[in-house]
Amino acid sequence: ESIARDAVALGFPHLIVQAKAELGASYDSAGRRSDAARELQEALVIAVTHDFDALAGRVVNGIILVSKGGSVDPEDLRRWVALGEAFATRGDDRRGLRGDLQNNLCLALRSAADPLGALEACRRAEAAYTQDRGADSLAVLRARINQVSALLDADRAVEALELAQSTLRILDELQDPVESDNIAALEHLAAAQHAVGVRRAALESFEGAWRRRLVITGGQGPTAFRTLQNLVVLRALVGELAAADEGLRRLRELDSSNGLRLAIVESLVAANGDDTVRATALLDAVVARAPARGRDSEHARFTLALLAAANGRPAHALTVLESVCGSEPPVAPMNVSICRGIAVATAAIANDRQAMLLWLARFEASFPMDPDADELGLATCAHAALLDHWSEGVETSAREAVERMSRDTHERAPLSRVLSTWLRTRVARP
C-alpha cells in the first residue's frame, strides 16, 4: 500500500499502473477480492489512457485471476480474455501472456462451475506455453496440473489419473521433488486416485506429499494445513482412526483460528467412527455454518447425507443433497454423480420409488449415469432398485460392489454403511 501511495505521489503513470497491479495481487492473496478488483480496475484505466498496451494486457490478466474467487459469468471472463489478447497483440507482449490469460481463465471457469470450459482453456494454455516456452517448461506442466483439476470436476477421473501420473513423472525428473510444483502434482495424483476408488494408493500419495511439504515448510503455513487436512480425512476414510485423530490434533496446533475448517475435518473423522450420533451432530452443526458451495462444505454435506441414510433418516438425507445439487449456480458434474448415487440409494432404502425416479431423471439429459465411474456400487443399487428387481445375479453384483469399495475404505465408512444398509433392506423385503 505504501509503495502504491508513493507511486501516485511521484506522478509517473507507468509506475502507478505497476504498483496498483501489484497491490491488487497482494489483496487477492489476502482474500480481499473487492479491494483487489478496485486497484486492478484503476490500473487498467490509467494504462488504457496512456496507451500502455502491453501493461494493460497484464492488468487484464490479473483481473481474470481475481475473478476466480467469486461468482462471475463465464462469458464475461471470455470477453476479458479477448480484451487481454488484443492489448497483448497491440503491445507486442504475446510471449507467455497468451498462456497466462488462458490458464487464469481455466482457474476462473472452474470457480464458475464450468469444468468443460475450464478444461478447454487449460488445454489452450498448454498449447500457448508449448509454443512460447517449450514442451517441457514449468508453465506447460503447471497447465497440465490445472487440467487434472478440471478433469476431476468434469467427472473424468480416469483421464485425470493418467495425466497426473505423467505430469508428476516429468516434474520429478526435471527438478527437485520437494519443489512446490512437484508437491501440487503429487496431491493432484492423490485426488485422482481417490476419485477412481484406489484410496490406499491415494493415501500413500498424500503421505508422500506431506513428507515433501515438511521439507520445504516445516509443516507450517496454509499449504501445509491443506495437505495435512486431506491426509487426515483420507486416513479416517480407510479406517486409520488413531492416525487421523493425531493429524487432527496437529491441525489444531497449526491454525486453531481456522474454526470452520477444523470443525469440518473433525466431523468427517467422526463420521468414520462408531459414534454416529456424535458424528451426525457435528455434521449438522457444520452444515448450519458452512456455505452451500465449496469443496469442504460439500464433502461435509455428502457425508451427512450418507450417515442420515444409513441411520434411517432418508428424508433428511435427500434434503441435505438438495442443498448441493438443487440450487444455483450450475452443479459440477462430479457433484451430480455423487448426489445422484447417494440420493437413489437413499430412496431405495426408504422404498420411495418416486424420489428414486426423480433423481435418476433429474440430470439424465446433461449428465447420463456412468456405471463405470466411482459411484459403481451406488449405480448398481440404483439400477436394481429402479427395476424393482431382486435376483441372485443382482444381489451378487451389489455385494461385489460393496466388497470392492470396502477394500479401500472400512466397514464403518459412511459409503460402506449406506451400501450395506441397502443390501440388508433389500434382503429383508419380501
Structure characterization notes:
It is a single chain. The chain is globular. By secondary structure, it is mainly alpha-helical. The protein is 77% helix and 0% strand. It has 22 helices and no strands.
Tell me the structural class.
mainly alpha
H/E series: HHHHHHHHHHHHHHHHHHHHHH
Helical coverage, percent range: over 70%
How much of the sequence is in beta strands?
Answer: under 5%
Rg over C-alpha atoms, rounded to the nearest angstrom: 24 Å
Largest sheet: none
What is the strand tally? 0
Overall average pLDDT: 81
Number of helices: 22
Low-confidence stretches: none
End-to-end separation in angstroms reads 72 Å
Please tell me what the overall shape is.
Answer: globular
In brief:
The chain has 430 residues and is mainly alpha-helical. It has helices at residues 2-10, 13-29, 33-49, 53-67, 74-90, 97-111, 115-133, 138-153, 157-174, 180-196, 199-217, 222-237, 241-254, 259-270, 276-289, 295-310, 314-325, 333-349, 353-362, 376-386, 392-407, 414-428.
